[in-house]
Amino acid sequence: GFMGPEQLPECLKGCDVVVIPAGVPRKPGMTRDDLFNTNASIVATLTTACAKHCPEAMICIISNPVNSTIPITSEVFKKQGVYNPKKIFGVTTLDIVRANTFVAELKGLDPAQVTVPVIGGHAGKTIIPLISQCTPKVDFPQDQLAKLTGRIQEAGTEVVQAKAGAGSATLSMAYAGARFVFSLLEAMKGKQGVVECSFVKSEETESPYFSTPLLLGKNGIEKNLGIGKITPFEEKMVAEAMAELKASIKKGEDFAKNFK
């Protein structure tokens, strides 16, 4: 193992994949954005070291607020002249895992057999579960759909409140983070058809970063599979997420530009 800033260069040399979960967790009453000041500095410091010592590596960011820490990572890599948008991922997999679980519970299905794409960002109303694209196909009355969507969006806060000051989601985040990284490693080894949602540089909407299903491959993102066909309810959620997404992205970019 490696410890401390002085061993960081040695730790990162030759890495193919770097996963960054570092940072402080939320406490009751905090939003993910309240973590910004502490976690932004941690992410900027660690990704600067990555850009210098393993510029070709896949970078997977778990540290919140992901809606800002991914723009920070991108700007840091740009500063070092080694930016490749196909290799920088915001890990939003926990939203997908939660959506799969909640849908499975309501329909009496095995969560392992349920796949709900979750697009947008990784905070509150920027989390947009596409229940209409769920496999297997499921239907909910509108009031139940609205309630289910709200629970998926606020599931992280549910955990923070239940833990009453002892932190945020840990085991579920570890599972979700591992799932994303294992998928990425499989794709890097040449497995075909590996798809995961992730918050990345995107041209799918007017937001410069946006999570959608991605086909992963040897070089990171092989193809952005886009949003696909969605319902008016889902379209409205996408439209309503834009202002918050853009503000969080700008906040991250501004921070990175001034980070020494």
How would you briefly describe this protein structure?
Helices cover 45% and strands 15% of the residues.
Protein described:
The protein is α/β, with parallel strands linked by helices and 260 residues long. It has two domains: 5-91, NAD(P)-binding Rossmann-like Domain (Rossmann fold, 3-Layer(aba) Sandwich), CATH 3.40.50.720; 93-245, Lactate dehydrogenase/glycoside hydrolase, family 4, C-terminal (L-2-Hydroxyisocaproate Dehydrogenase, Chain A, domain 2, Alpha-Beta Complex), CATH 3.90.110.10. It is 45% helix and 15% strand. The chain contains eight helices and eight strands, in the order H-E-H-E-H-E-H-E-E-H-H-H-E-E-E-H. It has helices at residues 8-12, 36-53, 66-79, 93-107, 142-153, 155-163, 171-188, 232-258, and strands at residues 17-20, 58-61, 88-90, 118-120, 127-129, 195-201, 209-217, 220-224. The strands form three sheets. Strands 1-2-3 form a three-stranded parallel beta sheet, covered by helices on one side. The chain has a three-stranded antiparallel beta sheet with strand order 6-7-8. The longest helix has 27 residues, at 232-258. One of its GO terms (biological process) is malate metabolic process. Its EC number is 1.1.1.37. GO terms for molecular function: L-malate dehydrogenase (NAD+) activity.
